[in-house]
Specification:
Layout lengths: L1 E4 L4 H4 L2 H9 L5 E6 L13 H18 L4 E7 L9 H15 L3 E5 L9 H17 L16 E6 L17 E4 L4 H9 L5 H6 L1 H7 L2 E9 L16
Parallel strand pairs: 1-2, 1-4, 2-3, 4-5
Antiparallel strand pairs: 5-7, 6-7
Helix pairs in contact: 3-6, 4-5
The chain binds zinc ion (ZN).
Length: 237
């Protein structure tokens, strides 16, 4: 399974259950995070953006360790500026990694940008969707390793919206993932982002109220089929 996110902490607050459950099944996981989160509102005791970036890189590594992630990588894009990145080049970097790692399943944010409608999340969604389809096409990036087509693309969605915020326009879900077996690890991984402690505290009630499940949409798969309900990202593979 390959997961593509924008910021350190995305991997746990949004996808921690899916990663934890995959680890329990012995599934190899590769998390790619595009920025080191220097534009965060919560800055811990960092004196500069660079220092915050260094802190958040270390927090990301610890969070991945807690979630049992087997491979992780943090790229060098600027936090809050992904919409200005070169789309073709950024997608190519993901294509190259898909062709090398050969994931069956690729997961990312929905095009809504998740609960905070973050533009970086939206761009990650679009880049990953393009890379998923281009990875299997010999005419796309012919110089970047041999074509490899991952089998399924899922995007994250939700069954609730955060009150007092402008609501995202969420996609429906096809997967309802019971993450209770990984819930405590998900919370622990989030707490490992110590620079984001106020955010962890502020969102605690959301996880208490809604934290037993994660929701995903099957966005692309090998065979034409009606949308059907699944309880696992790997069902039938
Ligand atoms: Zn984020």
């Amino acid at each position: 399974m390959m997961l593509v996110v924008a910021h350190p902490d995305d991997e746990c607050f949004a996808f921690g259950g899916a990663l934890g459950l995959a680890a329990d099944c012995g599934i190899e996981t590769y998390v790619i995070c595009l920025t080191d989160g220097q534009a965060a509102t919560h800055r811990g005791d960092a004196a500069s953006g660079e220092e915050l970036g260094r802190m958040r890189r270390a927090e990301f590594v610890e969070s991945c360790r807690i979630l049992g992630v087997t491979h992780h990588e943090l790229l060098d894009y600027q936090d809050g500026r992904l919409e200005f990145a070169d789309f073709s080049r950024a997608a190519g970097r993901l294509v190259e990694r898909m062709r090398r790692f050969k994931p069956d399943v690729v997961v990312t944010f929905g095009s809504d940008g998740s609960h905070n409608t973050h533009p970086d999340h939206m761009i990650v969604s679009m880049l990953t969707t393009a890379a998923f389809h281009w990875s299997g096409r010999p005419k796309r990036y012919p110089g970047l390793a041999l074509p490899f087509q991952p089998r399924r693309l899922f995007t994250q969605t939700s069954n609730y919206i955060v009150p007092d915020r402008q609501a995202p326009l969420l996609s429906p879900w096809t997967v309802e993932l019971d993450i209770r077996a990984a819930k405590e690890r998900k919370a622990e991984a989030f707490r490992a982002h110590t620079s984001q402690a106020p955010l962890v505290e502020k969102t605690k009630w959301l996880f208490e109220q809604h934290g037993d499940r994660e929701f995903y949409l099957l966005l692309a798969s090998e065979a034409p089929q009606p949308a059907t309900h699944m309880t696992d990202l790997f069902e039938g593979l």
